Amino acid sequence: MKRMIIFATLIAIYMCFGVCEAHWADQTLAEFKESNYITEDMNFTNLKEDITKGEIAQIINLYYSFEQELESANKSLELASEKGYMLNAKEDEAIRREEFAPIICELIGKGDIDMFEEVKTAFEDDKDISAWAKGYVKVLCDNQIIEGFPNHKFMPQANLKKGEFITILSRITGVGGKDDLVLIEDEEEPFLKVKTLKVYNDEIVDEEIEDELVLQSGDKALIAMYTSYEDASFKVEVKDENIAEFIEEFNQLKANSSGETQIIVTLDEHEDMMKEFKLIVE
């Protein structure tokens, strides 16, 4: 009897530590909660759980301001269908990893893919990826939105986990996913702000650029533009392209070699609105 009690106690301790174990996406979860993209009404206590299509629609609709507050999963899926990024989905249904790729491509404006074109990815389990999904998966790989597992596999038929979902969604910010130009209505004076969203090969950065931005040679920083002018577009000028280049398609600032250069951001039709900062490549 004593052995059974001890055994039961050990199971209880193991279960407690299993639930409390840290997850690599905990920081992203905290940021999503702080921004109210994930609310207390959502079940996100275990990031290793499968995410449902209903939960995906709820979070994406909040993330893109398609909805201003949390709606039921069914209502969020109806809106997802109207927006065209997820069709005929059931709220409690899990989603395969390859099945999620077209949704992300649609959100970043790269959903127009020939599903009959022969495409090969770099994953070791490329043969397991459905032919119709390979083009979408390759787009996400090429844009560094998905990386696969350490064993160089994509596991296309496995269900997407909650931690994987919020990580992928956070990566598309500034890559055409969320609007790079955001109308902020609580400012009285017109403004233009530039923000770094992520620096590859280094720590994650999420802050406004003031006078300078420091990168390591080889880094690629995603940047986002915020302006009070609705429907504005912007252009970025790099004074010394030997030191850095701006890849407009992905809003990516790529550090080529050490040195300093000036980055000038201006708004089309509002050329007096300018943001200038120094890029230092170490």
Question: Could you describe the 3D structure shown?
Answer:
The chain contains seven helices and ten strands. It has 282 residues and is α+β, with helices and mostly antiparallel strands. The chain has two domains: 24-171, no CATH class; 181-281, Sandwich (Immunoglobulin-like). The strands form two sheets. Strands 1, 2, 3, 5, 7 and 8 form a six-stranded mixed beta sheet that branches. Strands 4-10-9-6 form a four-stranded mixed beta sheet, with no helix packed on it. A hairpin with a 4-residue loop joins strand 7 and strand 8 (252-255). Helix 2 crosses helix 7 (162-171), helix 3 (53-63) crosses helix 4 and helix 5 (97-107) packs across helix 6 (131-142). The radius of gyration is 22 Å and the shape is globular. It starts with a helix and ends with a strand.
What's the quick description here?
The protein is an alpha+beta fold and 282 residues long. The protein has helices spanning 2-20, 26-34, 53-63, 73-83, 97-107, 131-142, 162-171; strands at 181-183, 192-199, 207-208, 212-215, 220-227, 234-238, 244-247, 252-255, 259-267, 270-281.
Give the N-terminus to C-terminus distance in angstroms. Answer: 66 Å
Shape estimate? globular
Number of strands: 10
Question: How many discrete structural domains?
Answer: 2
Percentage of β-strand residues: 15-25%
Structural class label:
alpha+beta
Largest sheet: 6 strands, mixed
| Structure annotation, total helices | 7
Average residue pLDDT = 78
Radius of gyration, rounded? 22 Å
Low-confidence stretches: 1-21, 174-188
* Helix-strand string: HHHHHHHEEEEEEEEEE
Percent in helix: 25-40%
